[in-house]
Amino acid sequence: MSNANKGYLPQLLLTVKATYQSDVTQIPIDLPGIKGFSKNQYGITLEISQTLFDGGVIRSQKNSVKATATVEEKETEVSLYSLNERINQLYFSILLLDEKLSLNNLLREELQRNYNQISAYVQNGIAHSADLDAVKVEQLKLNQNEEQLTHTRKAYWEMLSALLGENLPPDTKLQKPDAANQLVATPVTRPELDLFEARLKSLDTREQGITAGLLPKLGLFVTGGYGRPGLNMLDNDFALYYVGGVRLTWNFGNLYTQRNNRGTIATNKNQVFAQRDAFLVNTTIDIAKHTNEINKIKAMIQYDDEIIRLQNSIKQSAQAKVTSGTLSVTDLMREINAEDRAKQDKVLHETELMMTIYELKFTTNH
User: What keyword terms does UniProt attach to this protein (predicted)?
Assistant: First the structure.
């Protein structure tokens, strides 16, 4: 911008030249005191010019600088905004892992209670040591699963810290958003739309520059010089001189290229329009996909509590049958795992619901 504004300042031009001419002006008669003109000519000039009217060239240059800066700013905003999607994915993935680890603790307590109970059965001769081994296998599998969840959470946590640019303590507790308080709006206000608009305005400023280049330019100038000859062509000695006045210039060469230049700009505009339309179409598709996914998950969640209640009832019945000796411990482990899967399904559905809501919020920038 500063460079464009300097176009309004007076411009200085220094010229130094030395020439040899094949011929010079000659007077056909001999006049006393007038020598023949030298074919070697020398001169140094300094011209100061001040633009009065440039057809809007400087103004279009300033607008072009502003438009280019805006485009670069919007491109940066788009790049930063795209990180939000990755941050959301990591955030909810960590939330899901935390919920699974909590369920693992509940399952560990459940398995330990059954282990203690079956140990008593073995001591009383009601159960076999193999039944105790079956519970131990489930405990080992649980430990194995917890190791996997813990290491995965550590990796996700480090990635989230890197994206946020902060060294987050590993024991930081992430808050779980409440789906009931999330109001989803559908109008799209993504930064990509601002970027498309900025690119179109930048192309408009380029077109203004083409128009400005077709107009004449008017300015004042003063030229001072020293050379041989000076302004007096009959004086063959070195002399000082100056010239001042008004100058009008008109470059008709721009007429040859302006049609192609305008055509290039029109093509670029059409490309931006096409990119914007494609973006809006894809965004509309994503909105519909996320909305349907939200409705689907909500429909599934309404059955989770009942499934968990029934699985718990089945598990308790299985425990009673093991006590009476009518059901094997292996079958009991199957029912305990079924209840745990039902609880994990509920946690998964709730987390998926929040994640999908935030994906919709990301898609619309609300």
Answer: Cell outer membrane, Membrane, Transmembrane, Transmembrane beta strand, Transport
**Secondary structure of the chain: what % helix, strand, coil (to 5)?**
65, 15, 20
For residue 263, what is the domain's CATH number?
A: 1.20.1600.10
- List all residues 6 or more positions away from 25 whose beta carbon is below 8 Å from its beta carbon: 37, 233
- CA gap 22, 227 in Å, rounded: 19
Q: Which domain holds residue 145?
A: 56-215+250-364
Find all residues with CB under 8 Å of 150, minimum gap 6, and list them.
101
Q: State pLDDT tens for residues 34-55.
A: 666 777 888 999 999 999 998 8
Tokens linked to 209: 């520059």
Residue 183 has pLDDT above 60, yes or no: no
Does residue 239 come out as left (phi exceeding 0), alpha (psi in the -120 to 50 range) or beta? beta
- Complete edge-to-edge strand list for the sheet that includes strand 239-249: 11-20, 40-53, 217-228, 239-249
Residue with tokens 């309404």: 302
Q: Judge whether residue 83 has pLDDT over 70.
A: yes
SS3 call for 186:
coil
For residues 52 and 217, the answer to whether their CB atoms sit within 8 Å is: no
The count of structural domains within the chain is 1
Q: What is the pLDDT of residue 31?
A: 59
pLDDT value, residue 35: 64
